[in-house]
Amino acid sequence: MAAAGARRRRLLRLLMQLGSVLLTRFPFWNCLSALMLFAERADARRKPDIPVPYLYLDMGAAVLCASFMSFGVKRRWFALGAALQLAVGTYAAYIGGYVHYGDWLKVRMYSRTIAIIGGFLILASGAGEIYRQKPRSRSLQSTGQVFLGIYLICVVCTQRGRSCLVPWWAFVHSFVIA
């Protein structure tokens, strides 16, 4: 009985560390994939989602936050910074007017971004830290869980089809623009 509990604890610790490693390295992957997308758009003479000066600032902030999170330096603060950077960059892309995708694709893209922001908020709360010096921030953790819940609702709506998608997208659109 005790061996099974210890094994379960070890497995949970391993899963939490794996999730933390993946989440702290996400901004690097996000910058790389964005650069590839914008290079492809440059060949077609299309503008990137964000104006170019802001794009460099956004990617610089992402690499800075990812580097410090990867090295474990002030991980909570830089996870919060990465969440803020991702939220501001996504909002700038949304209001920039250069994103010409269908509604269902916008919902999928932005809901995934909301889920990643939720993951960063949970990481910023201190969840998953093995040697924790400060207690977890329950408000950041619950806010991150709400963001993950929004993502799951959007996934269900995109799976059900357009009838569920249109009211949700109209709600999100009116909330962000207003």
From TrEMBL:
Any single biological process term in GO: positive regulation of canonical NF-kappaB signal transduction
Q: Where are the transmembrane segments?
A: 12-39, 51-71, 78-101, 113-131
Q: Which UniProt keywords apply?
A: Membrane, Transmembrane, Transmembrane helix
InterPro entries, per the entry: TMEM101
Key word Ubl conjugation present in the record? no
Taken from the record, one Pfam family name reads: TMEM101
Name of the featured protein: Uncharacterized protein
Which species does this protein come from? Answer: Gopherus agassizii (Agassiz's desert tortoise)
